[in-house]
Amino acid sequence: MPTLSIPALDEVVYLEPGETVLSGLYKAGFSYTVGCRRGGCGICKLDVIEGSFSYERPVADTVISTDERTDGTCLSCRAIPESNITIQMREYEVRLVNPLLRQINEKARLRAEALAAAPDTPTTPDAGAGDD
Amino acid sequence: MGVMRMGYAHVKVTDMTEAKNHYNGTMGLYETHSDVTPDGAKRVFYKGWDEWDHHSVVLEEGGVGVVKYGWKVEHEADIDDIEAKARTFGLTVERMSKGDNPEIGDGIRFVTPSEHVFEVYHQATAVGTEVGTHNPEVFPRHLVGIGVPALDHSLITTGDVGTMERMLSDVFGFYATERVQTSLDDDHECVGTWMTSNNQIHQMAVIGGPQGKLHHFAFRLEDWNSVGRAADLMTMDDVPIDIGPTRHGITRGQTVYFFDPSGNRNEVFAGGYLAFPDRPTNVWTVDQLGKGIFYHDRELNERFTTVLT
Ligand code: FES
Ligand SMILES: [Fe+2]
């Protein structure tokens, strides 16, 4: 259960396994400047200050240098967290544009946390449907 | 008449398989050739259904952005003429030979003041449109995806728009149909120019920005309806749309901006009024740039000036 922490906003966002950082943030109701969404323009860069991620789809070498491959620079439209990660924005902060989605994401995260805390509980397909 | 049109746009893509899905499967271009460069990069050549020359789009694997543009001239002698004008302008011109580009003849190559590579040629292998010339139907029966008929134009960025405008005018004989200026005063700076050699509203547009970058290259469509249908297909194929369907104030063209799977911006473009060299150039001031670019939003989105490949 990867989570994405935004210390600046005191937010923790829940990501589906295999979901990109950008997709997770947008699905949770947040917005920030993005461009091509395909790893080609570099505008969606942010810093991952804790945790790890990988790119499973191509990104252009011209937008990410060799140093940036290892210094936490994250092309958020392509990056898929491998663990819980903590991010820091560069120029503009992530902003909440859809509180409803944020609420839904919050519930998904709490459910996932509860499940993780009780590993022996069998997972049911509709687990958490209305368990708030 | 010199330059007739932008004959080809040669661009880089990060993944050829995904790129082919997009340019063939979604855009509906016809693959005419594929090969591997001496340094091992895969290339695929395409044409639109209503184009007769061998190709108009070349994809090359490895990176993003534009490799070069090819400009087709009407007469063989136009090549020498443009070569002389380019030298007079102060550009370094080299000769290119038949076969340097598959199915393209002899010509010249130079780097523009904006640091883009331009090639000028006269001969290209004719393969014919998909409807032929003998009592032709109005479009091919089995188009794939959007089914774009042809490459239309491109927008590039440079640190010095004025010099690039002068080059396109002095060397190619282009004229500006529309311009964006910092003011209407004599000491204004030109921050954008839309240029052509004929009645097409623009073949190449240039705006201020970094040197050597691609803003977008565009495919022609017939009308609003086809622009709307193109956007529908983009949604079905999960193509990231930048903006649109909307209209440009500049050129009056109807448009969707979107991204290919490598992040290069594409456009589908319809309409645009007929250009004439003696028509007074439309002038936009930067405070109205939003309306000039996106006529309905009247506001530039944050990506317009920042997202380039
Ligand atoms: S949005 Fe272009 S690289 Fe991520
Ligand atoms: Fe355009």
TrEMBL record, chain A:
Pfam families linked to this entry: Fer2
Segments crossing the lipid bilayer: none
Family matches, as PROSITE patterns: 2FE2S_FER_1, 2FE2S_FER_2
Positions of the 2Fe-2S ferredoxin-type domain: 2-93
GO MF term set: 2 iron, 2 sulfur cluster binding
Protein name, UniProt field: CDP-4-dehydro-6-deoxyglucose reductase
Organism: Marihabitans asiaticum
Automatic annotation (TrEMBL), chain B:
Source superkingdom: Bacteria
Domain VOC: 5-123, 150-271
The protein's required cofactors: Fe(2+)
KW Transmembrane (keyword) present: no
Database matches in InterPro entries: Catechol_2-3_dOase, Glyas_Bleomycin-R_OHBP_Dase, Glyas_Fos-R_dOase_dom, VOC_core, Xdiol_ring_cleave_dOase_1/2, XylE-like_N
Keywords: Aromatic hydrocarbons catabolism, Dioxygenase, Iron, Metal-binding, Oxidoreductase, Repeat
Keyword Oxidoreductase: yes
Reactions catalysed according to its record: catechol + O2 = (2Z,4E)-2-hydroxy-6-oxohexa-2,4-dienoate + H(+)
MF-aspect GO terms: catechol 2,3-dioxygenase activity; ferrous iron binding
Family of the protein in this entry: Belongs to the extradiol ring-cleavage dioxygenase family.
NCBIfam families documented for this protein: catechol_2_3
Subunit structure: Homotetramer.
Protein's name in the database: Metapyrocatechase
